[in-house]
Specification:
Chain A: This is ABC transporter permease. Chain A: It is found in: Cell inner membrane; Cell membrane. The complex is a heterotrimer of chains A (271), B (358) and C (286). Chain A is mainly alpha-helical and 271 residues long. Chain A has one domain: MetI-like (MetI-like fold, Orthogonal Bundle), CATH 1.10.3720. In chain A, 73% of the residues lie in helices and 0% in strands. Chain A contains 13 helices and no strands. Chain B is α+β, with helices and mostly antiparallel strands. Chain B has two domains: 232 residues, P-loop containing nucleotide triphosphate hydrolases (Rossmann fold, 3-Layer(aba) Sandwich); 107 residues, Nucleic acid-binding proteins (OB fold (Dihydrolipoamide Acetyltransferase, E2P), Beta Barrel), CATH 2.40.50.140. Chain B is built from eight helices and 20 strands. Chain B has a six-stranded mixed β-sheet, with helices on both faces. A five-stranded antiparallel β-sheet of chain B has the order 13-12-11-14-20. Chain C has one domain: MetI-like fold, CATH 1.10.3720.10. Chain C is built from twelve helices and two strands, in the order αββααααααααααα. In chain C, strands 1-2 form a two-stranded antiparallel ribbon. Chain C is globular, with a radius of gyration of 24 Å. The two termini of chain C are 27 Å apart. Classes of the chains: A mainly alpha (271), B alpha+beta (358), C mainly alpha (286). Chains A and C meet through α1, α3, α4, α5 and α6 of A and α1, α3, α4, α5 and α7 of C. The structure holds adenosine-5'-triphosphate and magnesium ion.
Chain lengths: 271, 358, 286
């Protein structure tokens, strides 16, 4: 697109930016209120609610559970996705498309349906309300994200690289370890971060399978909000927002957020 | 018609013997009974139009495509059973396929590392290889930061450093601009002669094939049309396809007289260069062998292009279009619209059987 | 494609295939079966196989109202994301070097922020004494707060915000493939900006808008967190109803039947729209 943005376009854009940022900024600002109720910190910012958050055992333990769950799930998802991506991108075999559809299908199933399905299934196999159960369900819903970034990485590799390595006497395993793996590492890492974020933020499915003793941070937040909205939830949300911004920066550095989400052609981003 | 197809399967004494090599994709045969014997140290080019099966042939040699039939023997050893990594062939890919996360030196060292060549020897051989391709100072550069010609040299050094029995090159120069390509052709020939490595080059550029090779294998639609030295295939193409593919040529329908000693193109009759089979024939004359003069074939100049060192003149003759190439020695050829005669020495012609013309 | 060792791709596929069959297909199948079973507080879940739950859903106007509301919210959310997202995608596309990257982060970054946090932000803005009402009252534009929480309007606004990035991504992906010269060509032929937009750019954006619309509709129809926070108990949609059936009424079979119906509607609408779009665009681009 070579056209320029005129006055009305820029006005529209400004309103859009306000629309996007307003709810996020409001949460972050309210979190710093010194008052005991929802209000803007007109009398100067205070860390009162962040302190309250640190002293809230429920939120702290949920935060830890979320971190652990995200880390384990994203790692397992990456371990599953790497061989799968190689099979799908590099090989032609019966059932290839079926496998791809199967692994991508969690994106098509509404989370609410998955929540219902896992609630029943996990309790039937005796894993209801356990970390293992949470990990299983999260691995299922985040694997598509890792799989897609790894497939993109693999797809953008020159397939002649493998042949070149083979012609130089390198066996399959050595080629994978020394050529393929280092070259798709950024893809694996961004996939991991994306998967982690998706696991960390997941609420709709998790609210069904979490138990009072083992709850993730967004679910705890959701349940808290159902009862009351006070500055404490704003403080929790602020922590989540800061985390998201961190992830954004990491992803942007690693892969280019635009390239990952939209698939900008490389010519634009050549270093 | 593939003139060199051999029926027997006896192991050959030659260095590299390819016989009956065939590849079929879903009933479509893309390489059809390819047969070739290559001597040690020879430089052979596979030449043909796009899609004629050159890459497929080379990939079968390299082990990256499974042949549907045929045999490949290197020094009497059957290659087909060996995986690519055990064939000991060096390969340069059209895209170079340099490992982007390794420096030039690391790229070159890779083949030696997987062969477990000791450190000291490895470093020495990498250094020699870099020197051989004239990149002594560039060992620490990453491919991304090298020019096309430099990347191409790294790819060549990487393939040569493992001392391959045969070097396979798939259009290695096609990504380079014209000047660099010529420079690299000379370089490639020099390096090949220095190392004495048997080389098979795939190209669709006939000047490249002629400039580099000891022998040229001309392919069309999966089949070999002709094999021979550059001068031989240029001067004596087996059919009109080969004649046209190897540069511009004029093809006139003619008749060989009953005695086999005279040839007529319409009313123009001249002596046959050698005894020929009486009957219809196709007379091929290269544009540089045609001149303007009295008699000969009558034609009218359609277009005239000045190219500095030479003139290129296109004519419409009574026997179809013709093209004449004259060195610029000061004389100006006939102008557009002018009628003239086209003359040639009787021994400048090459006769081809008409049925070979598709 | 190389055709070396044949068993390799199968070996590589085994982990994923096993995990997805056991932990995705089996649970979904289990839910389908569960939706056929019967529940009462006295007996719990009884292993019968009948369509009673579905019959109940179709014959009770209570459920119909909730399905209708869910559809309304999903449709309006889709429309809002189109009307705002599509032009914004074009504007982003036309931005130059540093700005484009910055505003792309602004537009798409919220994807990485928890839905709960984003919905909470809207609750703070839309509430009875939320920022919007306070601002309007202090400017003297209104006397009493406008009711926006617990309304379909509020849910649509918040959900449009949550799903906007998907529309922008879809449209930008399409715009990415356009030949930038086409626009110049149109101008060179004497067309003004408006004509160029209407006749040249918009038609080329349509496939992206369609993809985005399908995605947004599917997610809006099955969204849970935003309707739960903004709509509350009073304004139920299918997803929040399923949640209530499972965790409060404990009628799992009915909840499962609702979930399966929601799933079916979303899939049918998505596939149907996709067909229509493909048929239409195939003609255009063949
Ligand atoms: N994997 C494949 N499956 C089916 N057909 C193939 C495959 N690979 C190549 N072909 C076909 O085989 C024919 C020969 O291809 P090949 O790549 O060998 O041609 P080429 O001579 O190298 O051409 P070019 O000069 O364009 O590189 C082509 O018609 C091509 O379409
Ligand atoms: Mg080729």
């Amino acid at each position: 697109m070579s056209g320029r943005n005129g006055f009305w376009a820029l006005l529209f854009h400004t309103v859009f930016v306000i629309f996007v940022l307003a709810p996020i900024v409001v949460v972050c600002v309210v979190a710093f209120t010194p008052e005991g109720y929802l209000s803007l910190p007109v009398n100067g910012p205070s860390l009162r609610w962040f302190e309250a958050l640190l002293n809230n055992r429920d939120f702290v333990s949920s935060f830890q559970a979320s971190l652990l769950l995200g880390t384990i799930s994203a790692t397992l998802a990456a371990l599953i996705a790497v061989p799968t991506a190689i099979a799908i991108v590099r090989h032609e075999f019966p059932g290839r498309t079926a496998l791809l559809s199967l692994c991508m299908s969690p994106l098509m199933v509404p989370s609410i349906v998955l929540g219902v399905a896992f609630l029943r299934f996990l309790s039937q196999i005796g894993l209801g309300g356990t970390m293992v159960g949470l990990v299983i369900s999260h691995v299922i819903i985040i694997t598509p994200f890792v799989l897609r970034t790894i497939m993109n990485s693999l797809g953008s590799l020159d397939s002649a690289l493998d042949n070149a390595a083979a012609s130089l006497g390198s066996d399959g395993m050595t080629t994978f370890r020394r050529i393929t793996l280092p070259l798709i590492a950024p893809g694996i890492l961004s996939g991991w971060v994306l998967a982690f974020i998706n696991s960390f933020d997941e609420v709709t499915m998790t609210i069904f399978i979490a138990s009072p003793g083992l709850t993730t941070l967004p679910v705890r937040l959701m349940l808290y909000i159902e009862d009351s909205i006070d500055p404490l939830v704003a403080a929790v949300s602020t922590v989540l927002i800061v985390l998201a911004v961190l992830a954004m920066v990491i992803l942007d550095r690693l892969f280019g957020l635009d390239r990952m989400l939209i698939g900008t052609n490389d010519a634009d981003k050549d270093k | 018609m593939s003139p060199v197809t051999k029926a027997d399967n006896t192991p050959s004494a030659s260095f590299l013997a390819i016989d009956g090599l065939t590849k079929t994709y879903n009933k479509v045969t893309v390489v059809d009974r390819f047969a070739l014997e290559v001597e040690e140290g020879e430089f052979v080019s596979l030449l043909g139009p796009s899609g004629c099966g050159k890459t497929t042939t080379l990939q079968m040699l390299g082990g990256f495509v499974d042949p549907s039939a045929g045999s490949i023997r290197l020094e009497g050893r059957d290659l087909i059973a060996a995986p690519p990594s055990k064939r000991g062939l060096g390969m340069v890919f059209q895209s170079y396929a340099l490992f982007p996360h390794m420096t030039a030196a690391q790229n070159i060292a890779y083949g030696l590392e997987v062969r477990k060549v000791p450190r000291a020897e490895r470093d020495e051989r990498v250094r020699q290889a870099l020197d051989l391709v004239g990149l002594g100072a560039y060992g620490d550069r990453y491919p991304r930061r090298m020019s096309g010609g430099q990347q191409q040299r790294v790819a060549l050094a990487r393939a040569l450093v493992i001392r391959p029995r045969v070097l396979l090159l798939d259009e290695p120069l096609s990504n380079l601009d014209a000047n660099l390509r010529e420079e690299m052709q000379i370089e490639l020939r020099r390096i090949q002669q220095t190392t004495g490595t048997t080389t098979i080059l795939v190209t669709h550029d006939q000047t490249e094939a002629m400039a580099l090779s000891d022998r040229i294998v001309l392919m069309r639609a999966g089949r070999i049309e002709q094999i021979g030295g550059p001068e031989a295939v240029y001067a004596r193409p087996a059919n009109s396809f080969v004649a046209r593919f190897l540069g511009k040529t004029n093809l006139f329908p003619g008749t060989v007289g009953a005695d086999g000693r005279s040839i007529s193109i319409g009313s123009h009759v001249f002596a046959a260069p050698a005894a020929a089979t009486p009957g219809a024939t196709i007379v091929a004359v290269r544009p540089e062998k045609l001149g303007f003069g009295e008699g000969g074939i009558r034609g009218v100049v359609r277009n005239r292009v000045f190219q500095g060192t030479q003139w290129l003149v296109e004519l419409d003759t009574e026997h179809g279009p013709a093209i004449v190439q004259r060195q610029n020695l000061g004389a100006v050829p006939p102008a557009i619209g002018e009628a003239t005669g086209l003359v040639f020495e009787p021994d400048a012609v090459h006769l081809m059987a008409p049925e070979a013309d598709k | 494609m190389r055709a070396i060792s044949r068993p390799l791709p199968f070996l590589l596929s085994i982990p994923a295939a096993l995990i997805f069959v056991i932990f995705l297909l089996l649970p979904l199948l289990g839910t389908l079966i569960l939706s056929l079973q019967d529940f009462s507080l006295a007996t719990g879940i009884r292993p019968v196989y009948e369509l009673a739950n579905y019959v109940e859903i179709f014959s009770d106007s209570y459920f119909f109202d909730i399905f209708a509301r869910t559809a309304r919210i999903a449709v309006f959310t889709t429309l809002v994301t189109i009307v705002i997202g599509a032009p914004e995608a074009l504007i982003l596309m036309r931005m130059k070097a540093p700005w484009r990257g910055i505003f792309l982060l602004v537009a798409l970054g919220p994807l990485l922020i928890s839905v709960v946090s984003r919905s909470l932000g809207w609750a703070l803005l839309l509430g009875g004494n939320g920022m919007i009402n306070q601002a309007l009252m202090s400017m003297g534009l209104i006397e009493r707060p406008i009711q926006m929480m617990y309304t379909e309007f509020g849910v649509v606004i918040a959900m449009s915000h949550v799903l906007m990035p998907f529309m922008i991504i879809a449209v930008m992906t399409t715009l990415q493939r356009l030949n930038p010269q086409v626009e110049n060509a149109s101008h060179s032929l004497g067309a003004g900006s408006f004509t160029t937009f209407w006749r040249v750019i918009l038609p080329q954006m349509l496939p992206g808008i369609m993809t985005g619309a399908i995605l947004v509709f599917a997610m809006a129809a099955s969204a849970f967190a935003t309707p739960q926070i903004i709509g509350g108990r009073r304004l139920k949609v299918i997803a929040t109803l399923v949640y209530d059936e499972f965790l409060f009424s404990l009628n799992w079979p009915l909840g499962a039947a609702l979930a399966m119906l929601l799933f079916a509607v979303v899939i049918v609408v998505a596939i149907g729209l996709n067909r229509v779009a493909e048929g239409y665009f195939a003609r255009m681009y063949k």
